[in-house]
Write a structure and sequence with these properties.
It is a single chain. The chain is α+β, with helices and mostly antiparallel strands. The chain folds into two domains: about 1-60 and about 75-105, no CATH class; about 115-205, Jelly Rolls. It has helices at about 1-15, 25-40, 45-55, 80-90, 95-105; strands at about 60, 70, 115-120, 125-130, 130-135, 140-145, 150-155, 165, 175-180, 185-190, 200-205. The strands form two sheets. Strands 1, 2, 3, 6, 9 and 11 form a six-stranded mixed β-sheet that branches. Strands 4, 5, 7, 8 and 10 form a five-stranded antiparallel β-sheet that branches. Strand 7 and strand 8 form a beta hairpin. The longest helix has 18 residues, at about 25-40. It is globular and about 55 Å long.
Length: about 200
């Protein structure tokens, strides 16, 4: 039953894409699924998140915020997720077997996934990134996540300073997706609304 519920949650979390969900969207869904599993103490949900993330092929980039502070480490990895699933499944041999299978199975994901960088923000601080080029008529995505419990906000501005997308929900996860009418430069702003300082990963397609 838990496996069925996990599959249902993944399905309803992913929008209908003509060619399947993008790696950036999968990164977001895996983070939300992981958070839900940890909150519920459910190893199956956490395992499902790990399997999604295992296929992403995240690529480190050299993007740095203007006057920003680089963070340490990497985005939450599938190995960390499986370790948490193992702890939650203590004593459940069936679920532990599923976790072991997931740890050794070959990744079926893309060879090269979202480009990411790690930033660091104090409580109440913000990062602004140099303008990034996105193609006109193609769906653009920007996503940020933190491992620590904090509240990240994300805003995207076009080259005329107009807000084109924002995510200000109270969460350690923020996602923006939009289709530029024409090719152009867009400015990304990330804010940490607290309650504590946190490193975060920023990903783009």
């Amino acid at each position: 039953m838990r496996q069925f519920l996990a599959a249902c949650l993944v399905t309803v979390s992913l929008p209908a894409w003509a060619e399947g969900p993008s790696p950036v969207k999968i990164a977001e869904v895996s983070a939300r699924l992981y958070a839900a599993g940890m909150d519920a103490g459910d190893p199956i949900l956490v395992l499902s998140a790990a399997k999604l993330r295992k296929g992403l092929g995240l690529v480190p980039g050299d993007r740095v915020a203007v006057d920003g502070v680089a963070g340490q480490g990497a985005p939450l990895g599938w190995e960390e997720m499986l370790a948490q699933a193992t702890a939650l499944a203590a004593g459940d041999e069936v679920v532990l077997g599923l976790i072991e299978d997931a740890s050794v199975e070959m990744s079926k994901g893309v060879a090269s996934g979202p480009v990411y960088n790690i930033g660091s923000l104090g409580n109440g601080k913000g990062d602004t990134y140099p303008p990034i080029e996105f193609r006109g008529g193609e769906y653009a995505e920007v996503y940020v996540e933190a491992k620590a419990a904090t509240n990240l906000n994300l805003a995207i501005y076009d080259d005329r300073g107009r807000l084109v997308c924002s995510d200000t929900d109270i969460s350690h996860i923020a996602y923006c997706g939009w289709t530029p009418a024409s090719a152009g430069s867009f400015t990304l702003k990330v804010e940490n609304k607290g309650p504590a300082a946190a490193d975060y990963a920023l990903m783009t397609n």
